[in-house]
Amino acid sequence: MTDDIIPKGQDYLTTIRSDQYFEILPDLLGPNMEIFKETVTLIGIPLDPPIGNTDTIMERLEDAVPGKEVPTRLVAFANMSAAPIELHGKGPLAGYYDLYVTLSPSKESPGRSIYRRENKDGGTFESKATFWPLFEFRPLGGGRSIFIDTGKQNVPGFPMNIGSAGGHWSTRPPTEHAVTGFRAKPFFYHNKIVITAQRDGQTSPVIPMKFAGPQIAACAKIQAEFTNASYGGVLGRQALRTTKLNANREIE
Asked: What is the pLDDT of residues 212-248, one digit of tens each?
């Protein structure tokens, strides 16, 4: 393998902040519920089992040649609302919920990336992906959660086409605590990665969005770090339980 070849592997990231617009129709929420149309601020939660404070794993599926597209996929994703959200309606399901967002267990979230070298240790990249999430509305007072799998149910705006450009990758970790993995051959990120989605091209072909502005998602991620009792790492958080066992790990 030459020095120019970029090996396949997995990259580990953690979310600083993500602002995501949702338009959930009443029939997906339950009897006598109202439409939920709101921009929600999301934060990352560590994966279970934890890999430092990793909440997102992106995998390169093939060795890449600089300047040529390589297929990728999201392997894991775990975000939750930074504050509870309120569902309105006249039925018993109206009230406050924590919103959890993971990957759909019924459809892959594939993507494509182009890597360019600036030197022997790294360079820049451009990426795009089709994002199929699973939503869980978990009631604050306990009770049954509301699950919406965009891989099976028609939700306006999903799947979402997300993209990032101008990010920098490196084969050298930015700190001694940067997350790596056995045989994963990860890249490391020294700066913020900004991922966005515009409304154009995002509209569901079955159920069009009605209330969205031009930008429906903006997310900032950084290199994931290992955390332990003596070192909190970057944005280290308490590990919270995830919505569904193995939902981020494999397709059913």
From this structure: 999 999 999 999 998 664 544 555 444 444 444 444 4
The count of domains in the chain is 1
Give the C-alpha distances (Å, rounded to integers) separating 128 from 69, 83, 196, 240.
10, 28, 10, 28
Domain residue limits at 22: 9-223
Residue 40 near residue 99, CB atoms below 8 Å? yes
Residue 128 placed within a domain: yes
**Chain position carrying tokens 């699973």:** 134
Residue 88 has pLDDT above 70, yes or no: yes
- Residue 230 counted as domain residue: no
Each residue's pLDDT tens digit, 45-58? 988 888 889 999 99
* Residue 204: inside a domain: yes
170 neighbors 122 (Cβ within 8 angstroms): yes
Q: Do the beta carbons of residue 182 and residue 6 sit within 8 Å?
A: no
* Token code pair at residue 183: 């045989």
